[in-house]
Amino acid sequence: MAVPAPSPAWITIRVEVAPEVADAVANFLVEAGASGVLTEADGVGRLEAPVPAAAGARVVAAVERYLASLGEIVPAARRATLAAVPVPETDWEALWRRHHRPVAVGRRLLVAPPWDVPRAPGREVLVIEPGMAFGTGQHATTRACLEAIEDAVETGEVRSALDVGTGSGVLALALARLGVERVVALDTDPAVAPLARANLARNGATRVALLAGPLAAVRGRFDLVVANLLADAIVAGAGALARAVGPGGRLVVSGLVGEQLPAVRRAYPGWRVAKTRAAAGWRTLTLVREP
Which residues lie below 8 Å from residue 171, measured CB to CB, with a gap of 6+? Predict the structure, then answer.
């Protein structure tokens, strides 16, 4: 993806926020008018978003309101800092490419951008074009879901799988490349479909069924359902997600922080946590039905 090179009429909005809400704030920045968001996590989520200078005051005010609202739900968001600074002469393409590097995940996978695809004997290389859709392998929740997928597939019991909130398509691609016969990728946002479709085609995974719409639109049940969303969506969609899992199947839910786990557990009565993965403040649960 070629990141738009800001002219002198652009500013950069810089936000430092707790890692557990960095993705939500990054998504809001894009919705508010940013042309893209560069992220860096090092104890604090650092976000930089180029915005036309003419829209700067409006976007800053919108982000301030959003952070105040988010702070009512996640107290850590109240510690966020926000600044708008002029954009210096910057090679945004080079900066974008330096941020997206190959990432080895688990025992069998490696996620790489198209401009830096290494030889990786013994690994399935997933070539993902970074874009506005979530899922480049850089984030802890994506990596944890990929590891959970590896574990599930290695049981030999996964012949069908559903990726809910597919974004870039990386999880659906991993499922296909690891040998799952029937893979369905779903996202409620039709705008992400072209990027997901391009990523799947680039990797020869054209048999993955890509759908845009609500989970209720998906027919059938699956041996594995993966939902890398946020806690509110995982709780609100608990009934539909649970119904999509076939007998003896597994449900992987991610995008959770520690204080949200009790609410998520309550939303899935009759299920137990088979495994919890924790990284960078995020939690990923693998759920199975109680016998």
Answer: 135, 142, 145, 146, 149, 163, 185, 226, 228
